[in-house]
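Incident log, structure service

09:12 report received: a user says their structure output differs between two submissions of the same chain.
09:20 pulled the input from the user's history:
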Amino acid sequence: MIKSDSNPNTIFHNPILHPLMPIKQNNADSEFTSLHIKLPNALAQQGNLEWFNGSCFSLTLAVNAFGSYTAKTNTFDVSPGTFFFSRPNTFRKIEWSDTTEIHHIAFSERFLAKYAGVALFTSFPFLLLETVTPKPVSKEMLNDLQKIYVQINNEHFGNCPFKKNIVANLLTRLLLQIKRIFWDGYDTKFNKNIEHDIVTRFIKNLEEHSQHLQQGKAAIQLRVKDYAKMQGIHENYLYTVIKARTGKMVSHWITEKTVFIAQNLLENPLLSIKEISYKLGFPYISYFTIFFKKHTGFTPKDFRKNSMA
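09:34 re-ran on a clean worker, output below:
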C-alpha cells in the first residue's frame, strides 16, 4: 500500500520507488510541482512518497487507482476515473491500495498570478471550498483532462526558458476545464446565501486592496475590522463566517496576501525595501524583515537577491 500524508509543514520529497518505475519527480519547488506515476500492474503497490506541499493547492487525477483520501476529518474513497483537489494549510492524507496511473499537480496562488496574470479566487471561486468529495469523470472528460496534465508535465520538465509561463497558462486551462465540468455556475448559483456572499465579498475586497497597494493607490494595509466595516458587519461575525467557510482565519488570509504583495514588490528593483515596508503598513524595516522571514524563510534582502539571480 502506498501511503502519503501532510500537515501545513509538509514539503515534497523525492519518492522511494521501485527502480523500474517510470516516474518523473522534480526537485522541491515552493510554487509548482508536477508528478506523473505510470507503472505496470505488477509494481502497483510498491513505493512510499509524500504528496503535498503545505502552502499549495493540489489537483489529483486518479486515472487508474484505488485508495482513500482524507481531508481534515473527512475520508473518501478514490477509484479509477476520479478527480479531487485540496487546499493549502489543511491536514491531507492519501492511501493508495492499487495504483497504476495518477497525475498530481501542486501550485501556489502566486505561481498563477506571476506567470499567467490570474487572480485565483476571482477566476476560480470553487477553490474556496474547504472539503470536496472526489468527483467521477466520464471517459471523454478523463481523456481531456489527462491530455492537459501530460502537456503540463512535459513542459515542466522541458528546457524552454519560458516554461513557467507556458505551464501557468496550461494550468489555467486545466482549472477552466475543471470549473466547467464540476463547478460551472458555482459562483452564481451554488450555495447562494448570506454567508457565501460574505466570503465572496471579502475575497473580492482583499484582491482589490492588494491591487491598490501594488499600484500605489492605497497607502495602508487594511485590518480585520476594516474588511468587516466594508460589509457593515461586526468583525467577530466576519471572523466566524470566514473561518467556518474557508477553514482559515481572516488574519491568515490577510497575512498570506501581505506576503504575496511583498514578494511581488520586492521583484521591482525601483522600490527600496524601506518603501515596501511602509507601503505594507510596517512602521520600521526591522518589523517587516521579521514578518517576511517568519513566513518565507528569507529576509527581504535575500529574497530580492534570489529573485534577481
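09:41 both user submissions now match this output. Likely a transient worker issue. Closing.
09:42 reviewer note: The longest strand covers residues 92-107. Residues 56 and 108 are 5 Å apart (CA to CA).
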